[in-house]
Amino acid sequence: MSKPQPTLDLDRIHRLVADLAAEVAKAPPDAPGMQDLRDEIVTLRNVLDSPKTKHHWIEDGLHAVRDAAQAVRGEVMRESVYVAEIGRILGL
Q: Rounded CA gap, 10 and 16, in Å?
């Protein structure tokens, strides 16, 4: 039997992505890894704004944003609460 899919709080995810995007906007544009993080945020926003929302697409996008944020955390961004919050959303 397959596990039931947890319900994602889309409002919470939208707020998190908006807050993270605002934090990323403060970082130097040429900082290593920041363009990857910006691109992943844009991709996730597109998925969230899609007329046909698929939870596995959102989860994949959250994983990609989390990985990109971890890559730049400490170097450019302050210790990120966003990585931890994404982990909580994903059940990690």
A: 10
Number of domains in the chain: 1
pTM tops 0.90, yes or no: no
Q: Nearest to residue 39, comparing CAs of 14, 4, 63, 68? A: 68
Residue 23 lies in a domain: no
Sequence length of the chain is 92
For residue 73, give the nearest of 61, 58, 86 by alpha carbon: 86
Query: Which residue in 58, 43, 54, 50 sits closest to 12, CA to CA?
Result: 58
Q: What is the pLDDT of residues 10-47, one digit of tens each?
A: 999 999 999 989 988 888 878 888 899 999 999 999 99
DSSP state, residue 54: -
Residue 54 lies inside a defined structural domain of this protein: yes
